[in-house]
Design brief:
Elements (H helix, E strand, L loop, with lengths): L3 E2 L3 E4 L4 H4 L9 H8 L7 H4 L14 H17 L2 E3 L6 E7 L2 E11 H5 L3 E2 L6 H14 L1 E2 L3 E5 L3 H10 L6 E4 L5 E6 L2 H11 L5 E5 L1 H16 L9 E8 L5 E2 L1 E5 L7 H11 L2 E3 L9 E6 L2 E6 L15 H11 L13 E5 L3 H10 L5 E4 L5 H9 L10 E2 L9 E3 L1
Parallel strand pairs: 6-11, 8-12
Antiparallel strand pairs: 1-5, 2-3, 2-21, 4-5, 4-10, 5-12, 7-21, 8-11, 9-10, 13-20, 14-18, 14-19, 15-17, 16-17, 16-19
């Protein structure tokens, strides 16, 4: 079962919601965040990426970053203003871009269920990123980042969503990236119906936000250790979308050098491992990856290399590419920490891969075919962990529209 809990949201008044809302803190660099927030003192990036208001050489985990975030948060509460709901509630949050539309339930979800793996994971986290968001939550006494969950679609939840979303929304605006964000507040009777419907949902799955979820759990433990006077909480802020509505884009890879090989030698070595032919920027099917090298696109036949083992993880395209090319040919032993390897979200497109290689910031790039939601759920159900950066969910939720104070 899955439990949901209403919460008293801290949120902007409708007139400034579009200006306050920001992209998630972890999808942009400090320079990109600084550019996005330029000229907009209400941008929530001043809270989630507060280093943009400090000297450019300030480290992202420096003490002053968290102190600045707390100051900016308090200032934004007054300037926007941000208002605290008088009563706990849950919300429906719709994302719409082009033909893609998905509606999820924004609520607080149980950290006990997260720690007991009833909220299932498919990705490992990195300690320094957990440390960062844990401290951010504790310093601000607020969850400002939203976890993106998915679940197997429920007709009962869909029926309540249809009723609630037929009413006038709290917010309805289109952001600069073309994504329309619409939020409705559910009334008490509908909240009860949703709680009953979610109690029949067998499991929730983290789609995006493993670090935010892990940090919420760690922040709870940190505050509990401080004693009753520090306060406490037992849930994390998340939006849960039905699996038949969410969309996964590929998570592409770039490598800074060819481990001492020339482009011709590397191409020959790759062709000896698996068939290589002229290709296009986007792979045409599962079992194929596109490679950009020396100003040309090639198609790699990953199926010819065979799966790594018999489990579903080993048959993923990202797993085969990692084993045959990233590890064997490019000599990257730890894909989670090696600075030679970087990941590029599918929303940035394959032109970004060409720019990185043509500009000399990478030697080779790989454009992947997207993993499916069914893959993610099956692997998580089996207790498996996918290779790092296997999935890129798009469109993304905005920070700053719903904040959970703790």
């Amino acid at each position: 079962m899955a439990s949901i809990r209403p919460f008293r949201a801290l949120r902007p008044v409708p007139e400034v919601a579009a200006r306050v809302s920001s992209v998630p803190y972890d999808v942009v660099s400090a320079d990109e965040a600084r550019a996005l927030a330029a000229g907009n003192p209400l941008s929530f990036l001043h809270v989630t990426r507060s280093e943009i208001d400090l000297p450019p050489d300030t480290g992202p985990y420096a003490d002053q970053v968290y102190a600045q975030a707390a100051r900016n948060f308090e200032a934004l509460k007054r300037a926007a203003p941000l208002v605290l709901e008088p009563e706990p509630a849950v919300y429906f949050y719709r994302l719409r871009v082009g033909a893609q539309e998905q509606t999820g339930l924004a609520a607080c979800y149980s950290l006990d269920e997260y720690e007991r793996d009833l909220i299932k994971k498919h990705e490992r986290t990195r300690r320094e990123k957990e440390d960062d968001r844990t401290r951010h939550i504790v310093e601000l006494r607020a969850q400002t980042g939203v976890v993106f969950l998915t679940y197997r679609a429920s007709a009962d939840v869909d029926e309540v969503a249809k009723r609630v979303c037929g009413q006038p929304p709290l917010y309805d605006f289109t952001a600069d990236d073309g994504v329309t964000h619409t939020i409705w507040r559910a009334e008490r009777a509908e909240t009860h119906a949703l709680a009953a419907a979610f109690s029949r949902v067998p499991a929730l799955y983290i789609a995006d936000g493993h670090h935010r979820a892990a940090s919420a759990a760690r922040a709870r433990a940190t505050l509990k250790a401080g004693g009753p006077e520090t306060g406490g909480f037992d849930s994390m802020l998340a939006v849960a979308f039905p699996d038949n509505q969410v969309s996964i884009l590929p998570y592409n890879r770039v490598v800074k050098d060819l481990a001492g090989s020339s482009p011709d030698a590397f191409l020959a070595a790759a062709n000896a491992k698996l068939p290589v032919r002229d290709g296009t920027p986007v792979p045409g099917r599962k079992g194929e990856a596109s490679m950009y090298l020396g100003g040309r696109w090639y198609a790699l036949d990953l199926k010819a290399a065979g799966a790594a083992g018999t489990d579903r993880i080993g048959s993923l395209d990202v797993s085969i590419l990692q084993r045959v090319v990233i590890e064997d040919l490019l000599k990257i032993a730890d894909v989670r920490t090696d600075a030679r390897l970087d990941f590029v979200g599918g929303a940035r497109g394959t032109a970004e891969l060409e720019t990185l290689v043509d500009g000399g910031r990478a030697a080779v790039a790989f454009s992947m075919y997207a993993v499916t939601v069914d893959d993610l759920m099956a692997i998580a159900d089996a207790g498996g962990i996918m290779p790092p950066k296997s999935t890129w969910f798009e469109p993304k939720l905005r920070d700053g529209l719903l904040v959970h104070l703790i």
